[in-house]
Write a structure and sequence with these properties.
This protein has 17 helices and 17 strands. The protein has 457 residues and is of the alpha/beta class. Belongs to the mandelate racemase/muconate lactonizing enzyme family.
Length: 457
């Protein structure tokens, strides 16, 4: 394997240029699709609809602390001259790219084949173009992307950091629905050892739990004892970004001293440097179709696994399956987060057997949107990211109590943790959202915590 990696890294390779990908798509349609006049791929119109989804009860308790804005999704419908309409979706406030009105205007009248590999179009618009082209050519989206190498692809259940009881119940819900992997966050405001002890009590060793620390272990020296202790649970399989990814020596030390696999977000440090240094075991890959395909091909050349991270509701998860079908090293379970919502917007849900979902073989994305649900849940698009005031209470076994207030930034708790403002993974940590009863006491505590916080009670 290392010989292959070295020879690959010594040469210059052009991975998935837009022109080459467009050429492949045309060749694939000619070889596998129905014979369609090229003019039939011309974009006639685009319309967009915003919906507000509700979280399931358990995710709601936890997502409302930090990510209430993930509820908002925009659906793009792209109609071609063929009469076929493709659909894509954008999680408006957590995505690699949000389509603009300018993006919409610049593709009308253009060939969908020529523009669909352009990542600057944003998530929902690009996805809708792939769906429309696949439907028109009567081929599945994966046939437009590359040669199919997998007929199934692994998916993981995801939730933000939760109480130990909520984590255990979510793992059981995942198992019931055919999942064998659960991904969550490792945070100092929860007792991660209590989480693992409670969740694994009723789980077989084959059910895997992956923990994303987002740098909160800070350094290898501080974090190694925690990582070793967690590794005693056979279910623990992957640590994501335990310390800053820029700390190559620290990450090397972690890789060398734990049996658990280490994942890093693809792109930083540069993938070549990551491979040469051996500072992780695999990647987290997302983004637009061109950049994701390039990342997947790189991982294929150096034989490093990765998981697909395309986040949204059901349509995003279905679209992700197609990348899983053509990218050989997409062997770690994908994170799509569609399990968070009461409604995933699909007529039929994505089903799993032993952690695997079938790569669709119907034209386009291969799943249909439930437009009755869309009609029921549609709202005006927010003018900016919704930012309700939130007050979060954290307690510890020694009686310590702290309050954190939302401050207009998304990662306000994570930032505080990485600045050392919470006790470092102390015993008995537990966290809850304090309901806003609009009382003078609540408002005063929120104001003080926002200005000075986190604050001790």
């Amino acid at each position: 394997m290392m010989t292959n990696r070295r020879s690959f890294l010594k040469r210059t390779a052009t991975l998935a240029s837009v022109g080459a990908l467009t050429g492949f798509t045309r060749q694939s349609i000619m070889a596998n699709g129905s014979v369609v006049n090229d003019r039939q791929f011309e974009v006639v119109s685009v319309d967009r609809t915003t919906v507000k989804l509700e979280y399931r009860e358990t995710p709601r308790r936890n997502m409302d602390r930090e990510l209430p804005h993930w509820r908002y999704i925009e659906l793009c419908r792209v109609k071609l001259k063929s009469g076929q309409t493709g659909v894509g979706e954008t999680l408006l406030y957590y995505t690699w790219g949000v389509p603009s009105e300018t993006d919409v205007k610049r593709i009308v009248g253009k060939s969908a084949i020529e523009v669909m590999w352009d990542d600057t179009l944003g998530a929902g618009l690009q996805m809708a173009l792939f769906d429309a082209v696949g439907r028109t050519a009567e081929v599945p989206v994966h046939a437009l992307m590359g040669r199919q190498v997998h007929s199934t692809t692994p998916l993981s259940w995801w939730n933000i950091d939760t109480s130990a009881a909520d984590m255990a119940s979510e793992c059981q819900e995942a198992r019931k629905l055919g999942y064998v992997s659960y991904k969550t966050k490792g945070r100092p405001w929860f007792d991660i050892f209590e989480q693992l002890e409670t969740a694994t009590r009723a789980l077989p060793a084959e059910f895997k739990i992956d923990m994303d620390f987002n740098d909160t272990l800070l350094t290898a020296e501080k974090g190694m004892s925690i990582l070793r202790r967690l590794a005693k649970y056979p279910q623990v399989d992957i640590y994501e970004s335990p310390i800053p990814q820029s700390d190559i020596p620290g990450n090397q030390k972690i890789v060398q001293n734990t049996r658990v696999q280490i994942a890093m977000h693809y792109g930083s440090p540069k993938p070549r440097l990551v491979v040469e240094s051996g500072c992780c075991d695999g990647f987290v890959a997302g983004g637009g179709a061109s950049s994701l395909t390039a990342a997947g091909r790189f991982c294929g050349e150096v034989q490093m696994p990765f998981w697909l991270q395309l986040v949204g509701a059901g349509l995003t998860a279905a679209y992700s399956l197609h990348f899983g079908g053509v990218l050989r090293q997409a062997r770690w379970p994908a994170v799509n987060c569609h399990q968070l919502f009461e409604d995933d917007l699909l007529q039929e849900p994505i089903t799993l057997q032993n952690g695997l979902a079938a790569v669709p073989d119907k034209p386009g994305i291969g799943y249909e949107v439930n437009w009755d649900t869309v009609e029921r849940l549609k709202v005006d698009r927010p003018k900016s990211r919704p930012e309700p005031h939130r007050l979060i209470e954290t307690t510890w076994a020694d009686g310590k109590r702290m309050y954190t207030a939302s401050n207009g930034k998304v990662n306000f708790m994570l930032t505080a943790a990485n600045e050392g403002k919470y006790p470092y993974f102390a015993a008995g940590a537990d966290t809850r959202l304090v309901p806003n009863n609009n009382s003078p006491e609540w408002r005063e505590r929120y104001k003080k915590a926002r200005e000075q916080g986190p604050i001790e009670a």
